């Protein structure tokens, strides 16, 4: 059975994006890209909300073909083209996107549970704060990989929101990058 792993950048004060969705404060470099790529290549299933999916679709399918494409662009573009994509959306047209399953927001708890049952390994939830909020509310996330950036935003879109009941987490690993970004890997502890 598959498990859902939240893969998200956060500010030190717990925001996934600025008030208007700004992400210009997120630090990424080759060290972080290589660390993330090692993890990403262990799976072939990605989960997104519509906004993040449209942002990914606008870049990754042709990123490797652009002049001056980086090593990361080439590797992630190749992975993205073959990965199974699952998108929570009430408005996205599934037929317009290859290798993509669209799940209506009203149907997502049962549909996500079915996808977990049918999937070997991990399902990576990239960014997508509103989708993370929905899945956390239904206790559907199994692990969190948070890339904590050394910045305080003061306000914005929170990483965690609308959690119905306390969820205990166990720190599995912490990795400090030379930039000061820290990756915290937590496993969600299930009771009962």
What can you see in these coordinates?
The chain is an alpha/beta fold and 192 residues long. It has one domain: 3-Layer(aba) Sandwich (Dihydrofolate Reductase, subunit A), CATH 3.40.430.10. The protein is 27% helix and 30% strand. The strands form two sheets. It has an eight-stranded mixed β-sheet, sandwiched between helices. The protein has a two-stranded antiparallel ribbon with strand order 2-8. Strand 9 (168-176) and strand 10 (182-189) form a beta hairpin. The longest helix is centred in the middle third of the chain and has 12 residues, at 71-82. It starts with a strand and ends with a strand.
List keywords for this structure.
about 190 residues; alpha/beta; eight-stranded mixed sheet; two-stranded antiparallel sheet
């Amino acid at each position: 059975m598959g498990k859902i792993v939240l893969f998200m950048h956060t500010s030190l004060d717990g925001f996934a994006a600025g008030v208007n969705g700004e992400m210009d404060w997120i630090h990424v470099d080759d060290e972080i890209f290589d660390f993330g790529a090692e993890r990403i290549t262990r799976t072939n299933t990605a989960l997104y909300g519509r906004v993040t999916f449209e942002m990914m679709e606008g870049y990754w399918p042709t990123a490797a073909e652009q002049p001056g494409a980086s090593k990361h662009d080439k590797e992630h573009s190749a992975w993205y083209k073959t990965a199974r994509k699952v998108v929570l959306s009430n408005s996205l047209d599934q037929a317009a996107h290859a290798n993509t399953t669209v799940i209506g927001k009203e149907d997502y708890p049962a549909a996500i549970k079915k996808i977990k049952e049918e999937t070997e390994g991990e399902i990576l939830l990239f960014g997508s704060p509103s989708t993370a909020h929905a899945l956390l509310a239904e206790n559907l996330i199994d692990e969190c990989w948070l890339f904590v950036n050394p910045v305080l935003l003061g306000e914005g879109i929170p990483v965690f929101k609308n959690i119905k009941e306390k969820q205990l987490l166990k720190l599995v690993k912490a990795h400090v990058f030379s930039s000061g970004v820290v990756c915290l890997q937590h496993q969600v502890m299930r009771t009962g």
